[in-house]
Amino acid sequence: MKIKNILLILFFPLTIYSQDYSRDWKGYFSYLDINDISQGNSKVFGAAENAVFIFDTQTNEIKELTTINGLSGETISSIQYVEENGLLLIGFENGLMQVYLESSQDIRTVVDILNKPTIPPIDKRINNFTVYNGLAYISTDYGISVYDINALEFGDTFFIGPNGSQLTVNDIAVFQEEIFVATENGLFKADVNNSNLIDFQQWQQLDNANWLEIEFVGDKLFIARDNTILYELVGNSFVQRVDYTGQINHLSKNNNQLIVTLLNAVYVYNTEPFTENSVINTLEDYPTNFTSAIINEENDVFIGTQGVFVTNKTGFGILKINLSDLEQIDEIHPDCPLSNNAFSIQATDNNLWATYGDYTVSYNAFPLRERGYSHLIGENWKNIPYDSLLGARNLTKINVNPLKPSQVFICSFYDGLLEVNNDVPTNIFNATNSTFESSSTNPNVSDIRNEGSKIDKNGILWCTNAKLLDPLKSYNITTGEWKTYDFSEIIIDRNTEIGYSSIDIDQNEVLWIGGHRKGIFGYKPNTGELKNIESEEENLPSPSVKTLKVDKQNQVWLGTDKGLRVIYNTEAFFSDPNFEPSEIIILDDGVASELLFQQYVKDIEVDGANNKWIGTLDTGVYYLSSDGQETIYHFTKDNSPLPTNQVIDISLDETNGIVYIATSKGLVSFNSETSAPDITLQEAYVYPNPVRPNFNINDEKIKIKGITENVNIKILDIEGNLVTEAESRTNTKFSGYNLEIDGGTALWNGKNMSGKTVASGVYMVMIADLDSFETKVLKLMVVR
User: Fold this and answer.
1) Residue 351 has what DSSP assignment?
2) Residue 222 and residue 240 in contact, taking contact as beta carbons nearer than 8 Å
3) Exposed, middle or buried by CB within 10 Å (0-12, 13-18, 19+), for 669?
4) CA distances (Å), 217 to each of 253, 363, 550, 652, in order?
5) Sheet of 153-158, strand order
6) What is the rounded average pLDDT for all residues in the chain?
7) Of 18, 255, 306, 704, which sees the most CB atoms within 10 A?
8) Confidence at residue 7, expressed as pLDDT on a 0 to 100 scale
9) Alpha-carbon span 55 to 333, nearest angstrom
10) Is the dihedral of CA 389, 392, 397, 401 positive or negative?
11) Of 547, 445, 466, 567, which is closest to residue 504 (Cα–Cα)?
C-alpha cells in the first residue's frame, strides 16, 4: 500500500488550475512599480509586485491579472509571453510558476520547483525565461529547468556548477544552435541539441565573471556583467562595446535593434553596424528608476519604472515613448492605489481611504515615511502625493467626519494631525496650534506621535499623543476648541506608554483606548474616571492591545499580540476592583479551546448584524458570529484571493456590504451582502426587480435592502398565500433558511417553505418593524 501511495504522489501532476474569485471579490493592487516587461505583436505585459496587466497597443484597453483571477500573490520576478502558444509564463521569487492561458483565461499553477525538496527555499528564485523550439529554459538560482510549453509539463533540470553543483543562472540565450548561460560564476555554453545536457561535463565554461544579462541580435551576441560594460562575444572572446556610468539592468531586442536599460537611461542601438540610435534619460516629470525596456515595430519604447526607495517615491507603471518624439510620454498602468503596503484603511459609502505610514511593533516611528495617501471614489483612485501634505509624515489612521464626508482627519505618527477637505490638505495640527505636545525631550524636535483616534456622535475628534502624562486630546470640529486630559494617575513615566493603537466609544460615551504597554484604558470624559487593565494576572494575554471595537451590544472586543478578549459588562470594568476581561471558549472537534489563542490580532470590525471581522498577522481573516462561537468564514491565502495571510487592517462599507481587507501585499474586497440597518423602512427596496431567467436566483439571491434592525418579512404570492417568512435574530444569515436576514439586508433564494423554486409571477414583500410597527409593502416580479 505504501508503494502505491508513493507512485500516486510521483505521477500526480504538480499543476493546478487556479480558482476565479471574481464573483464575490475585487482586487485593488498597485501597478506603479514594474518588475518585468514582455510583449507580443499587439500586447505589452507589465509585471508589478504581485499582479500583471495586459495593455492592448491597438485599442489601449488594459486587463488585470491578480489573485482574483488566480495569481498566487507572491512576488513576481520574471514574465515571458509566448505569442504562438497564446500563453504568459510567470515566475516568482519563491520558485512558483504560473501559466496564463489566453484562450480559456485560466491560470495554471505549477509547483515543481517550489516543492522540490533537494533545493533550498532561498535558491528557488526564477530569474528569466528563454523560449526556443517549444521549450522554455528557466534561469533560476540553482541552475536551469526546462518546461515544455506545448505539453505544459516540466522536463529535465541542469545543474552546471562544479561537479554538477547548483549555480545561480541569471539569463539564457539560444544562439546559432548553442545555448549560452550567464551565471554568477562565468559564461557557459553547450550544443542546444545535445540530448545529454543533464551531464555537467557537456557544458563549456568560458570565464569566471558574474554575467547578468545576455541577448542576441541577428548574428551578434551581447552580454552584460556586474560592472558598467556591455560586451559582444566574438568567438570565445569578450569585446567591449560600451562603458556606461551605471550597471546594466536589462537587455532586450526587436529585429536589428538592441535595447539596453540602465537605472537612469535606456539606450537603443542599431547592430548592423553597431551604432547608437537613441537614448532616453531619466525624465524630469517622472523621477523614477528604470527596470526594463522593450521596443515594438512602430519604434514605441515601453519602459518599466520603479520607485526610488530612499525618497519613498513610487514608479509610474510603464512609460511609452516613441523614438520619433521623445517629448511625448504616455503613462500606462491600470487605475490603482499608490502602494500595496497600506498601513490603514477607512471605508464609507462608496469611498475608501488608504495611508502608507508605518512604525515598528514597539512604536518606533523611524525611518519616517514621506508617502501620500490614496482615495477610492466609486471605482476610481485618486492619489494625493506627499508634496501636498503640508509636511505630514507617517500617515496612519483616517477619520471621516460623519457629518461632512468630504472632511477627513488623518493621523501623523510624527507630525500631529492632518485635515483634508475635498482631498485638499488644508491644515496640520501640531504643538503650535493645538494641545498636541512633542514626545521628545529635545526642545528643538517636534515629535508628535498621534495614532489612536475617533470622531464621536457630537463631532468631537479624540486623539492620542504618545509619550506624555496627558496623552488624550480632543478637538471640537465645529468650534475649533482643543482640550487635553491627564492620565498621570496611571502613567507615572511618560516613556512607559509609547503608543496607542485605537480608540472606540461605547453607548454611554465611555472612551476605550488600546495601549502598547499599559493594556486597555477606560475613560469617562464626563466624570474623569479612569482605569486600565494591563497584566496577565488580570486575564489580559498581553499588555500590547493592537485593536479594540465596541459592538452593538455595548461589549468591548479587544485584540492583543497574543490573543482576544471581551469586556461583556462595561460598567463592571470600573466598579469591580477584581474585574477581568473574558476569553471566548469554543468547541473544536468536541474539545474546549480558546478562540484565537496566542494569535496576533491586528483589527476587529463589527458589521450590521453584529458579526465580527477579525484580521490576524499570520492566519488571515476570520468572520465570526456575534458571540464568536461560530466561524462563518476563515479566509486565507489558500482558499481566497488574499495575497498573504498577513492582514494589516479591515474596514467595512456598511451601506454596500463591502469588506475591504488590507494586507502587506495588497488590498482586496469581499462582497458580504451585509449592510447596516436603516432607521426607518422608507428607503427599503428589492433587487433585482424583475428577476429575469438568466439570474441565478439560488446562488446570487434576491436582496431586500434598507430594512430596520428588528423586522418581520413575509413574501406572499398574488393570491395572498404565504411563500416564505423571516424574522430578525431568528432567520439569520448562514443558518440555512430560504429567507435570511443580515443587518439591513435580507436575502431570498427564490424558494418556498417546501424548498421548491417559485414559479413566474408577481410576489408581495411585506416588511413590518417589530419595534416601531412601521410597515412597507414591495412588489417583486419573477420571470422564470
Assistant:
1) E
2) no
3) buried
4) 7, 54, 66, 54
5) 126-132, 135-140, 144-148, 153-158
6) 93
7) 704
8) 35
9) 8
10) negative
11) 547
Mean pLDDT for the stretch of residues 621-644: 95
Q: What ranges make up the beta strands (E) of 378-452?
A: 380-384, 395-400, 407-414, 416-421, 424-429, 448-449
pLDDT at 5: 40
For 659-701, what is each residue's pLDDT tens digit? 999 999 999 999 998 888 899 999 999 999 999 999 999 888 9
| Residue 646 vs residue 4, higher pLDDT | 646
Q: Is 6 helix (H, G, I), strand (E, B) or coil?
A: helix
**Mean pLDDT calculated for residue range 18-29:** 89
Q: What are the phi and psi torsion angles at 573 (to 5°)?
A: -55, -40
Average pLDDT over residues 314-332: 95
Contacts of 728 (CB under 8 A, 6+ apart): 709, 710, 711, 712, 741, 770
The 10 Å Cβ neighbour count of residue 522 is 21
Query: Quick one: cell of 691?
Result: 428577476
CA distances from 447 to 402, 465, 532 (A): 29, 10, 26
Domains and CATH numbers, the chain: 2-332 (2.130.10.10), 348-496 (2.130.10.10), 685-782 (2.60.40.4070)
29: nearest Cα among 91, 60, 75: 75
H/E element holding 739? strand 739-742
**CA distances (Å), origin 575, targets 524, 529, 530, 578, 580:** 13, 11, 11, 9, 12
Q: Whose CA is closest to 51, among 121, 104, 100? A: 100
Neighbours of 760 (CB within 10 A): 11
With a CB cutoff of 8 Å and minimum separation 6, the contacts of 778 are 684, 685, 686, 704, 764, 765, 767
Q: Are the beta carbons of 738 and 758 closer than 8 angstroms?
A: no
Cell numbers for 674:
451585509
Grid cell of 300 as nine digits: 514605441
Find the mean pLDDT for residues 382-386.
Answer: 95
Which of 363, 370, 343, 372 lies closest to 664, judged by CA?
343
pLDDT at 11 over 70: no
Phi, psi torsion values for 97, nearest 5 degrees: -135, 140
pLDDT 10s digits, 524-545: 999 999 999 999 999 999 999 9
Please tell me what DSSP assigns to residue 159.
Answer: -
pLDDT of residue 311: 57
Going by DSSP bridges, is the β-strand pair 318-322/761-769 parallel, antiparallel, or unpaired?
A: unpaired
d(CA 47, CA 723): 52
